[in-house]
Amino acid sequence: MNSDDQREVLDPGDSLAESRGVVAEMWGKFRAMHGPQHILDGAAPAIGFLIGYSAAGAEVGVFVAILIAVVLGAVRLMRGDSVRVVAGAVLVILVFSLFVEITGEGRGFYLPEVALSVVMTVLFGATLLTGKPLSYTVSRKIRLEPAEPADAAARLRLHRRITFAWFVFWAAHVAVMVPLYLADKVVLLGTFALVFGKPALVVMLALTWLWVRSKATVRAGAA
Asked: What sections of the protein cross the membrane (predicted)?
């Protein structure tokens, strides 16, 4: 067993307890920031678009989505949310709706998500090939990773695995969303985007944060 493996298996009970504590802390912060409510608020306009589209076509779907976004924005402002956050949420729906007008098709509402999935797949895949995993670069910029880790090679190996997980995440989106988009299956495309869009992204971000932090804690305790 090499030194890395020895550090990995050191005090598994303590490591598990630490991970549970981190999860509890992370969930507490998420709730304190009204994360679940923000996800529901973000999903409501998309659900409105699907309902309007199914009932009367793309134009009605766009109208319903924008109406819901504006109403929710007003409610969130009265609830105390910042103007910048609320404006950003409404702007996203406006951009999605604009693509319906540009393309003249209901599936255009999901074109930004399809394009984002393709771009992110390429980015994460490319950094794996170059040997500079994207998650490592991002983690250092947001100071989740120390500027000079004790074992830089081990941290780089960890981030290759994390970056590969993100590559698979986005590639799965491409594998599902692109065929649905090309086949003009708007309802199926919208349903997939609702379930595996923002909610799944939040979960992936949380798991990544937990993964990076827990590994750093284990190695710091073993040092």
From this structure: 50-73, 85-103, 109-131, 164-182, 188-212
Q: In this structure, is the dihedral angle defined by the CA atoms of residues 66, 71, 72 and 77, taken in order, positive or negative?
A: positive
120 and 134 Cβ atoms separated by less than 8 Å = no
Q: What is the pLDDT of residues 184-207, one digit of tens each?
A: 999 999 999 998 888 888 888 888
Region of residue 104 (phi > 0: left; psi between -120 and 50: alpha; otherwise: beta): left
Q: Which token pair is 76?
A: 């969130």
Long-range Cβ pairs for the range 182-189 (8 Å, 24+): 184/105, 184/107, 186/50, 186/53, 186/106, 186/107, 186/109, 186/110, 187/50, 187/53, 187/54, 189/107, 189/110
Nearest to 182 by CA among 121, 116, 114: 114
Lowest mean pLDDT among 4-8, 87-91, 134-138, 213-217: 4-8
